């Protein structure tokens, strides 16, 4: 069996590549939001042209980033949503909510710092873990 796994969460750290390395031996196709932060911020203007204000620039980028997320998440068998400690996690929360509303199996990664804030999401997810090693083990178990 081959899985497609959508990797939701912040794009400022290397966590996706770490998980890809941990799962390199598994038949998994990983998909994710645009991981190039500058391209993610500029995509609206790249497609629609220069915008009059920074608010419009963000709004047009958001349209195309949401389009990408919707298409890739719809094709995914499992969603992994990482909630780290360093950055605000609005995108992770939105993606986790979309996964749950779409009846996509969800693995929530919470290092522990946000346990209280994430308790409702955690209780709706199929699994809540604290590390990428645990995500890799869970994915291995699904495939096994």
What do you see in this structure?
It is a single chain. By secondary structure, this protein is α/β, with parallel strands linked by helices. The chain has a domain at 3-34 and 76-143: 3-Layer(aba) Sandwich (Rossmann fold), CATH 3.40.50.450. The chain contains 6 helices and 5 strands. A 5-stranded parallel sheet has the order 2-1-3-4-5, with helices on both faces. Helix 5 (119-124) links the parallel strand 4 and strand 5 (127-129). Helix 1 packs across helix 6 (132-143) and helix 2 crosses helix 3. The chain is globular, with a radius of gyration of 16 Å.
Q: Compute the gyration radius: what is it?
A: 16 Å
Mean pLDDT over the full residue set = 92
Give a quick account of the main beta sheet: strands, pairing sense, barrel closure.
5 strands, parallel
Strand content: 15-25%
Distance between the termini: 9 Å
- Gross CATH architecture of the domain at 3-34 and 76-143: 3-Layer(aba) Sandwich
Give helix % range.
40-55%
CATH class of the domain at 3-34 and 76-143: Alpha Beta
Number of helical segments with 4 or more residues: 6
Shape: globular
């Amino acid at each position: 069996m081959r899985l497609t796994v959508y990797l939701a969460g912040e794009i400022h750290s290397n966590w996706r590549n770490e998980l890809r390395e941990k799962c390199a031996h598994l038949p998994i196709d990983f998909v994710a939001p645009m991981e190039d932060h500058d391209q993610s911020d500029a995509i609206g203007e790249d497609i629609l042209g220069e915008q009059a204000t920074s608010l419009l620039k963000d709004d047009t980028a958001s349209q195309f980033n949401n389009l990408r997320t919707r298409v890739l998440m719809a094709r995914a068998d499992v969603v992994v949503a990482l909630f780290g400690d360093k950055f605000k996690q609005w995108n992770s929360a939105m993606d986790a909510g979309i996964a749950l509303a779409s009846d996509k199996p969800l693995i929530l990664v919470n290092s522990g710092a946000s346990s209280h804030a994430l308790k409702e999401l955690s209780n709706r997810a199929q699994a809540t873990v604290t590390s990428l090693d645990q995500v890799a083990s869970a994915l291995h178990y699904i495939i096994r």
